[in-house]
Amino acid sequence: MKNKRLIVLILLIILAGCTPPDDIDDPNIIKPTTEGEYTLIADFAVSPVRLYHGTYLGSYDAMEIGRRLQQKSKVHFPIEQHYLQEGQILNYDRLIRLVRRESDQNPQGLNPPAGSRFDIGDGRTFVDDAVVVADIVELNFLGNASENYALKGISLAIVLNQNVRRTVDGVDSFVMIQTERLYQFGTDIGRKLESYLRTIPAVGDVPIFITLYSTASADATLPGSFIGEGLFRNRSGQFVTNQERWVIFPSTEATNLDGVLAAQFTTLRSALQSLLPEAIGVIGRVRFIDNEADEMKITINMAAKTYTEVSIVTQITAQLLDTFENNDMLIVVEIRSLGTVLAVMERKRNDDEITVILLN
Fold it and tell me: How much is the pLDDT for 26?
């Protein structure tokens, strides 16, 4: 078993990030606080459609879409060559036209036309007037100062309702669109979206990265997942499928996906639950990419009576993270007492050190 060095912090440590070398002293940029993240423009511009996102995206999905879209974009828009900016191309009027139904008056609409029947993929179940497209999230990537911070790339997530409302004989219910059918529909409208964006003068021929995100999840406390992506350059490109999902630990699904990780989580959970007279709740949420664990979030709920109890739970938890041998997996732990977050710890990918932040 590897020895790990425990670092306890009262305040956040600001880490040096990766900044394009020719702009390192540029006052117009904001350097990242974490290594491996994008540099931002100091003149921050909020998304013109942020209120729409706030209305139609739940908190779990909103954070997962934005964070994962950034991660995916690094492959196509490297952090050493690009600055990150909130999407500015899809203003409110453009977004509303896109998420509405296709019609003669609104040919760019991405939702099925009024009066149409949507096949969910089993060949026998149809939904009248299905609303499949819920939202579109956009990120922009800019060049450096020598390029006058010109637009160099666009990333988008088309947010898809996999659970759609169906009305039969006046009775409403929800049906699940099969993932293969949702992917096929998403790729069709993704190409349509790319063609529409090319008509906007500010876009021109810049590379466009389009992802497909399903809001369906196995649990109300889990975000949805990305099911496809495609990069479009010079008006050509191809979609590929994504195999991503979040899974609750402990669960049968977790054990079936990764029995070793499930056993390691049970070891941590059992050790913590034996510490105090009152029960300690331990729940894990793990994101799997291509059936490999990529990120684990652990929430520990306790009813702390003293600061010493918090200290012992925090220290033992940090030691128990050594149980997880998968060093490619990011681990984030949140310790709560009666709804208040008392401590947060993190073990980064490919790192033996554990950072602990005591908040109270």
Answer: 66
